[in-house]
Each structure stands twice: as structure tokens, then as C-alpha cells.
User: Fold TRAP transporter large permease subunit from Ferranicluibacter rubi.
Amino acid sequence: MLVVVLAGVVLRYGFGTGLMGAEDLGIWLHIALIALGAPLALNGPLAMRLDILVSRLPLLPQRLAGIGADAVSVLAGLVLVFGGGAVMEMVGGTSPTLGVPEALRFGLPMLGGAALLVMLVLTRIAERDMLRAVAGPLLGAAAHLLAGHVVIETSWPPSVWLALVAGLGLLLSAPLAHAFLAAAAVAIAFGSSLPEPAILSTTVAGLSKFLLLAVPFFLLTGALLTASGAADRLVRFAASLVGHRRAGLAQTVLLTGVLFSGASGSSVANAAFGAATFQPELVRHGYPPAQAGAIVAATSVLDNVIPPSIAFLLLAAATNLSIGALLTGGFFAGGLMALCLAVAIALTDGDHGRMPRVGRGVQMRAALSALPAFGLGLIVVFGIRIGIVTTTEAAALAAAYTLILACLARRGVASIASVFRQAAVEASAIGLLIGTAAPFAFLLAVDDIAGVMQSVVTLLGGSALAVLLLSNLVLLALGLILDIGAAILLIGPVLLPAAVAAGIDPVHFGVILVVNLMIHGLTPPLGLLVYVVSGVTGVPASALFRAVLPYLTALLVSLFILSALALVFRP
Assistant:
């Protein structure tokens, strides 16, 4: 994908021509990447499982829940296999730009579904859990058979049943993307207008956007930036600026988060980097382990707000808002959030970790050594804002730039290859979530949930204040049970029309939506950033959730300020 996109940029500006079918080829390769990575996201943090409830159950109910979770994954895999096969039979013709049968695009998810089923069964056999190896697939196959032949009369719209079934899958600790896909299949029995082939084609259509290729490129950029050593130079520069202040080491963590967010676009990447780099140093300077981890998790929120931001890419893909305008709004929102966090750190962290003040000469040398990382921000933000390149092309240029930095740092081929693999697996998990959320979003549109939301707002007075209050409450509630990416894809198109009707600037509202949902990286039960830090540091997640409360409060204050500004500065 990287070679294809970069070739298009070079040909356009170097030779005044283009690469025939570059966008289509990039999209097909992205779908292939997601299909290949589908079984790899079955376990681990990329599965996005809500296991905090199941883990508290006694052994027997926990085993039953595990069988149910496997059944959900099996049902999702069968939807990909049989839905893909059905669409391949119906779709004819060839791609006008690539010259290959159009049906092959739908065969890729079918292969991914088959690999998922094989991976699940082999994993259970390797764990010597023959009960789950047999019972889960049988239960999933039975659910797949019944979903297509049973009709249940109900007055509730199919999207509500889809949400309920997906919620049940989450409670059973099934992977989030699998829960969405399985729920879409079960919703057929409740009158869904999406039969199985349509579920698959809607999933593929949700992925067939050139903009989404920016997601794997930004993930690759962040990983290569760390591998090249440029991230470490950012740390030294941040320490030279604020290390001598009150709670200097914690303020350095915050400023590094601000600087690093302009490069990685991934809060998870920054949380993992900060947990490995800063948490031990904070503890060594007198911070309790939980508080040190909480500081790292809280500052990582900024990465998906300050550009480049994967969250804004998802929102732009779901709502057709201007990505350039969203990124500009992200600069202001990220700065406000950083300021609120700085105040919270100064008030709550005592005077641990104050470093010696350094001179201007040291600061200048630190700034010069960090220049390569700053050049990355210029490529991404100004390239998009001025219009020289598209968002996807800017992300590809950023990945190529950091690849050059990693090569200049003499990183070995094996090291760089592992970085590419890590980014590919992460991108596959995010892409699978984007695709499987598309049928849910389609049913929400068919059932006119956006119109229902607007009616509720009208009942509350229809004012901008009512819209913002209701929207923030809905987002705060859904963020507790939905992954951030899924919430953006599902709720963004529902809430945005009501905001526009109330006279709120749509870009400002989009920024508020992303900030609101990013805060949930710190809240139970999902709290992905807390779990990432917990996994790296070994500090219990429950202790981190308690320690993060002061910083969570600071971020909520920034959300309140952004919402108030939306009322003051209306178009």
C-alpha cells in the first residue's frame, strides 16, 4: 500500500502523470490486509473484549461465557464465509481500473472468515480445552442456521435488536468486531433489511474508502518514529523546557505527549511508549506506581485529538466533514486539554521529579536534535491544510519519512520488519471494526434513529444548549460500553444532523464528539488506555482507574469549556 500511494505522489509531481488504478489497488490491498489480520485479532488487546465482567464470575459461569463468546466469533466467521461466497456468485464484471474480476474483492473477507474459524478451533485445541473447541463452533453454527430461517415478530426496530445482541456478545467477552457482525446476522430474524450477502457487501463498502488507508500509515509512522530514536529526542527536548518546573518529570511526560501526538496519531501507541519509557522513571523519582501509570494514560488521550488523529479520520469518513478543518480544530482542543492536565498535575503531584534548570545552549541543542520529528508534523499538517496532498498521501509521506529516519539510525531489517508487522496487525483490527460497524450504521439510518434523536431534542426545546447537553450525556454513556472507534462510526452520523439543525458549527461539534469519546480511554469498564498501561507496567487496572480521577476531572473541564465555546461562537 505504501509503495502504491507514494508512486502516485511521485508520478504526479515528478512527471505530471498518475498511476492508473492506484486508489482502487490501495483499497483492495487494505481489504486484503484486514482479511489476513482478522484471525490475529482474536486474542489480546486488539480483540477489544469487555472481559472485566466475565473475569469476576465463578469458574463454571466463566466457562459457559467463554463458550458463548466463541459462538459469537464462529457466527461472525460464518457470515464472512457464506456472505462472501453469496456475493461472489452475484457480482459480475471486472474492475475498470485493475482489470480483475470484481468478485475477488468480496472473496478476500471470505478467506479471512475461514482463517478466523481455523484459528479459533486450533487455539482451543492448543489450550487443551476440547469442550470449547467443540461446543463453541456447534453453538455458533446453530445460531447461523436459525438466523436465516426464523422470523420473530416485534415492534422494535431491527437496529435496537442488533444493539442488544451486540451488547450481549460484549458481556460474554466476545471481540467487539465479531459481536457487531454476529448481531447483524441475528437481526435478520427480527426483520432486518440486510440479508447475509448484504451484510458482507455493506462491510466491504465501509472499507472501500481511500481515506482509510491513512490509518495503517499513521500507525506505521508512530512505530517507526519510536524505532528511529526520534521519539527519545523529543523527550529530551521536552525535559529541557519544563523539567525544572513543579512536578517537572510529570510535566515532561505531558509535553512529550503533546509533541509525540503530532507524529503518531495513535493514543494506544503513545500509551505503550510512555508506559515503557516514563512510568519507571516517575516511580524512581517518588511517584506511586499507580499515579505514575495514570499520568501516562491521561497524557496519551491527546494523541487522538492533536493532529494527525486517527479518530478525526474515522469521523471524516463517517460524516463527510472536512478533515482539514477537523485537524485545525484538534490543535485548539488538544492545547486546551493539555493546559487543563498541566494544572491538574501541578495541583496534585507535589514536587516530585523536579530536574535541574538547563541553559539556553542545552535547550537549543535539544531542539536541533528533535528537528527531524518536527519535520514530520510539517509534512502531515501543512501538506493536508494547504492541499498539496490528500490525507492518505500525507500519511504515506510521513511513513516514508520515518522509514528513512529508521534506516539512518541503522535499525536492522528484522527490526524494521517487526515494526511493519506490528502496524499491520493493529491496522487490521481497527479496519475490521470499521467494516463490521457499517451494517449497524446502515440499520440506524434505515430506522431513522437520527430523526428520533432530533425529535427528542425538539421536545427538550431544540436549542443548541439542549443538543449539546443531550449529545454529551449520550456520548458519555455510550463511551462506557463502546470502543472509541465504533462509537465515532455509529453515533457521529446520528448526532451531527441534530447539531447542525440547532445552529452548531458541525466541525466544532465533531471536535467535541472526539474529545468526549477519547476521555473514555480512562473510564471503566473499557478504558483501553488504562489497560494498555496496566499490561506494560504490571500495575492493576483497578488501581490505575482510581489514580486517574484527578486527570479525568481536568479533561472533563476541558470538554465543558469546548461545549461552552460552541454556544458562544455559532455560525
In short: The longest helix spans residues 413-446. The CA atoms of residues 62 and 253 lie 39 Å apart. The mean pLDDT is 84. The two ends are 40 Å apart (CA to CA).
